[in-house]
Design brief:
- The protein is α+β, with helices and mostly antiparallel strands.
- Helix content is about 55%, strand content about 10%.
- It has helices at about 45-55, 120-135, 145-150, 175-185, 190-210, 225-245, 255-290, 300-305, 310-370, 375-430, 430-450, 475-495, 515-535, 545-550, and strands at about 1-5, 15, 20-25, 70-80, 85-90, 95-100, 110-115, 115-120, 455-460, 465-470, 505, 535-545, 565.
- A hairpin with a 3-residue loop joins strand 4 (about 70-80) and strand 5.
Length: about 575
Amino acid sequence: MLHRLSADDARFKAVEFSPGLNLLVADTTTSSAETDSRNSAGKSSVIELVHFLLGGQSSKSLATNRALRHITFSLAMDWPLQGSLEVRRRGDNPKVVSLSRDVSGVPADTLFTDGQEVELSVEQWNRVIERDLFGLDGDHPGVSGRTLLSFLIRRVSAHGFNEPTRTFARQAAAEASSNLAYLLGLDWQLVNGYRELNARKATRDQLRKAVNDPVWGRIVGSTADLRGQIALAEAQVERLRAQVASFQVVPEYERLKERADQVSRRIKQLAQDDVIDQHNLEELRGAVTETTDVEVSYLEPAYRELGVILNDQVRRRFEDVKAFHHSVVRNRRRFLEEEIQELTDRLAARRQERADLGEDQARLLRELADGGALEALTALQTALGREEAALGALRHRFDAAQALEASARQITAKSVELQHAVDLDLRERRHQTDEAILLFSRYAQRLYGEGREAYLAIEAGRTSLSITPRIDADDSRGINNMVIFCFDLTLAVLAHRHERGPDFLIHDSHLYDGVDERQVARALALAAEVTEQEHMQYIVTLNTDTLTTAAHRGFNPEPHIRSPRLTDDEEGGLFGFRFKATGKA
């Protein structure tokens, strides 16, 4: 159990805890203005500090705030089989946790000691928490002490009150369900298979996207494409192997090779020249087609429409221009036709030259194909080695592509197999599931009456173990919050009963926002009764108006109110002063 939350700053108001129900209350004062808010009193800060002292991450912790980081915060608590323990940690040195006594079991040479005080790294402290508070030792993939604590100490800053089966907004269902399975006494290792399968599926999806990418896809590729590339590469390797096996040295090989190269270059040059001349020929033919006489017969009617009468002198000028243009057109057409003929002759000459060169090249290549020089043999062997290496790489890519494409089928098959195995385990652990279902139902009916249907739906899903707390009621915020209350109380009681969890449960006042005053009173009364029966501790922060309405419904809060009573004035909050914070204090 937790006993005391304190700090070495005199302004900080130490919070005292006792067994059973603990109410940490925030009041308004007579001097409070309408704009004052008890959100600044420090109720949620208590929960943030408990998380910080129990190994929470420091990156976004309240304790690392500029105004608080110099303060050493302390938590006095009972430790299993060890007696009392005080935990200390400060924001300006968040990687180290100080303990009033050595409960770690870590070899002494790995610890920092100062008299009776022991210093652990946060990682070591979390392993000790997992071992002693939750009974987790050795490797336990999928189950984390920090996640388990987050179900027992939900945080508003992490959106922990959004839904019962998640402790933060984007928590994967498979990750949450393996931790819930542990608290409920189910086969969490089997349920963790969902998390591993989801991680495998996520990896496959990323690889699948990479394969579809035009750049990264070249690293693996598809089996269909690779199968064709392998066939071509195998044929190339076989051809080179045959050439190496039958290779013979040919006399005057270098001279023949040089001549063959010259012929090849000339053939390429002729082809390039053909492309240029063919392009020019097409342009010239187009120009011939476009060369036409100008049409002027429309001019005189057009002027007549405008009321202008052309005299004989103007008409003669038109005829002179027309005659001149006819002369230009004839000369241009004659010039273009001569150019076309010249290009046609050149193309024909090159065709003949290419035919002659082709015969010469074929003869040279036949001679060269019979063998080659020693250098050529070496180059041929090098080329063979290169092609064999490329073929090996293609085969490796093909194997990887096959595995990738087969993985989808394997994941689907494994998912079905895992779902069946979890379903079978749930049937074999009927005692554990019935205990959880009946406990949740009893708590819910205490809040809403005996006739209200309430239960836990626990079943093996395709992607995770599905745990759904249900209370037959309207889908209001208040009902949803009480579902979380009953679910958390069920988890905490079962975990404590079977030595899978600590003996405390902590809730923030936000859990009771929007809850009917009758259910608030019944929930607090139920928590007081259950914690006394189970020898546990329930800590809850509340505003006085919420507590007052609960008192009007028959709940007596006075025996459970713990000091201090926080207020919303300048010095009445938890820290004794106001400071700028990123979240609610």
